[in-house]
Design brief:
This is Transglutaminase-like domain-containing protein. The strands form five sheets. This protein has a four-stranded antiparallel beta sheet with strand order 5-4-3-6. Helix content is about 35%, strand content about 15%. It folds into two domains: about 180 residues, C8orf32 fold, CATH 3.10.620; about 270 residues, no CATH class. By secondary structure, the protein is an alpha+beta fold.
Amino acid sequence: MSNSLFRNLKNGAKYNALIPHSSCERVSLGKGNTFFSMEMIVQQALQHHEQVAKLAPVLQSDTLEKTCHSIHDFLYWHLQYKADGEAQLLRSPACSWQQRYDGIDCKSYSVFASAILLQQGIKHYIRKIKQPLHNPQNYTHVYVVVPIDQASGNLKAGHYTIDGTLQQTTEPFYTEKKDNFMDKLPHFGLNAPGGLSGEGEENSWLDNNWESIKSKLSCWGGSAYDWNRAEADMKGILNILHGHLENINTSLASDNMQALATSVNRFIGIAAWNASLVGTKRSHSWSSDCTKNNLKITHEAYNFYRYEVTNALMIYLDTYFTGIQNGSVVYGRVSRSGEGVQEAYTGEWATWEDQDIVFDIPFVKYTPKPNINIPAFEITPYVGQTNTSNFDVGTFLQGLSNIIKTIGGSSGGGSTGSGTGTGSGFEYDNNNPDNPTYKPSTNKAVLGWGAALVLGGIAFTKMKDKPKVKPKTEK
């Protein structure tokens, strides 16, 4: 990307009034150029798209192609490119504009482009790629692609590329890609196991159950927590959670245990915080039956991930890995709790509460156990049919048949547990997901520290103010 360095930026004074001069909002993604948190890129675009509400109409043209070129030219000629160093930062559009002379990297360009497209109501994908000459085993670059077919969002008819790091609008060469679908506001989806839209895996638990969840919602329109708001809330959080589950599997496949540990921690923290907040919201005396019903359904959906899925995940980790706790991460709302808090709020109506509630989630480093075949983690039908009180470990493990990693005796540490494979060396074929090459043994496991934490209450809340239960009026 050397042709993106030291470009002569155009005078951007005319855009200053269109982009707010707010505090420079940025998120740290950790250290190292292999750390790729796609769900945080999505979250940043969704959280800060209003910063470009005045800019977006100026860049919109009479055709989709012209609009894409206009956005690309704006990003390329007005914001300097500079690769992030060891500290990986993700900037809001306003922050990127403030730092345009210092330079931003591909992640922040993608947030900026996505925010503009969201404001324009244009469907698009945030795409991450592996490149043959740049650390080929890991995803190292991200940019935006816009499908020509805006009716369906399908990419088969072709697409336009918006990559602010490159002067040309042609797409970089890649060996592997993953796309995250961004629909018109307020709906969006992630390409993850169990995604709600886009080009995600088929026949997943969430795909098969989403219509049933949605059918329980009631009342369209009006000022209450209606069908549209509830659907948007659940789509937002559930797609983020499924994105973390996808990252757990891809991190394992690429031997990135740091990314795996981060995704586990964030899945648990975001699931716990959002379920708790919607529960608090639900506890108020709402005057509308519509709101009461939809908060109940949303709460039940979030609780499924907080308890059943988290329980299954911890049993999976306890079976195939050894874990050592290395500190903890506090989840909450940064705007209320201040620095040192991982943002868990992404704009959902159901989790907008006056209470400052935070969760302290253990951060655990995982090492695969030796002599073991490790399957991909899945939300199997059994997880969806069973609660934690009568969860049978063997039945659950039997449903995990897609082996994605085979560990020999020289790898990992700690004792082997139930779920240990035969060491056949067979691996899961990503191109043939319906025909797994090996099925692990399914003896019942003894619950270790991980599963015990879930069953005993893995997180705790700190409430600066006692929740107040009082009648609520609709907003």
